Amino acid sequence: MRAVVVLREEIEPKFEAKDIYLLILENGSSGMPLGRPVSERGERTSMARDKIRVIKRAEKLVENLEEFYNVFGLSITFGHVEEELIHAVESFKPHILYSFTPILITGDLLERDVVMLFPKRGFSFNRVLYIHSSSKPRSLEWLEKAQNVLAAAIIQPTMPPEASSKKTKETFERMERETLELAASLNAERVVMRGNVVEDTLRLAKEFKANTIAVNRGVGRENIEKILERADKNVIVV
User: Fold this and answer.
1) CA angle 115, 119, 125 (to 5 degrees)
2) For the chain, what is the radius of gyration of the CA atoms?
3) How confident is the model at residue 159, as a pLDDT?
4) What is the pLDDT of residues 196-213, one digit of tens each?
């Protein structure tokens, strides 16, 4: 399995992958992105020290991880994280992106054919809450790993309700069919409900005692970012 791994600090080599591309996010004590022109000698010296420190740290990370993985690429970024991330995904063609630090979920990234996993509590997939949506999941492999799955579809009403009642009914019926198929294939429980995608996802995760929340990217970038920000569990975007 090929993976892009995004991190700030050293991590334990416990994630599932064979070949990896490392993307290291670094603030730098100078607070300036790489490539920024400077004129004063003190600023140049500070940036040079930052770069040397970061490169040495990156070399140590690579050395530690090479015992367990084939490290095929490395990027160090002080800024322009989104550009570096898209470049890594485009060039390396990973099956999964592991992010051990918060990153911006862009529309461009959601369009890529890559599963995204944001670990918060190890890598347990014992109990998984899957939030279904209109988009076809990039992969069901991670749901199939789970011992217990709750497949949920949360239909968020739009305003005004009288203008969308027919569409809501059609969506509800379609979600009933799709979650029924998913439940049969995954031997899962299921629920289809009207509600708030973010609030009800967090509530269901607590009630189901899920250790991982799997979110269909069709729920939208803003909802995914809010779930990532507030959830205290692993989140995987499929």
Assistant:
1) 75
2) 21
3) 60
4) 999 999 999 999 999 999
**C-alpha triplet 203, 207, 212: angle, nearest 5°:** 80
pTM of the model: 0.84
* Peptide bond just before 160 cis, omega within 30 deg: yes
pLDDT digit string (tens) for 37-58?
A: 444 555 556 666 767 777 888 8
Cα 143 to Cα 23, 150, 187, 190, 209, distances in angstroms: 26, 10, 11, 13, 16
Sign of the C-alpha dihedral, residues 78, 80, 85, 88? Answer: negative
Domains of the chain: 2-104 (no CATH), 127-237 (3.40.50.620)
- 123 with 101: CB under 8 angstroms? no
Digit-coded pLDDT (tens) for 115-171: 999 998 778 889 999 999 987 777 788 888 899 999 999 998 766 655 567 788 888
CA–CA gap between residue 63 and residue 76 (Å, rounded): 15
3-state SS, the chain, equals: CEEEEEECCCCCCCCCCCEEEEEEECCCCCCCCCCCCCCCHHHHHHHHHHHHHHHHHHHHHHHHHCCCCEEEEEEEECCCHHHHHHHHHHHHCCCEEEECCCCCCCHHHHCCCCEEEECCECECCCEEEEEECCCCCCCCHHHHCCCEEEEEEEECCCCCHHHHHHHHHHHHHHHHHHHHHHHHHHCCEEEEEECCHHHHHHHHHHHHCCCEEEECHHHCHHHHHHHHHHCCCEEEEC
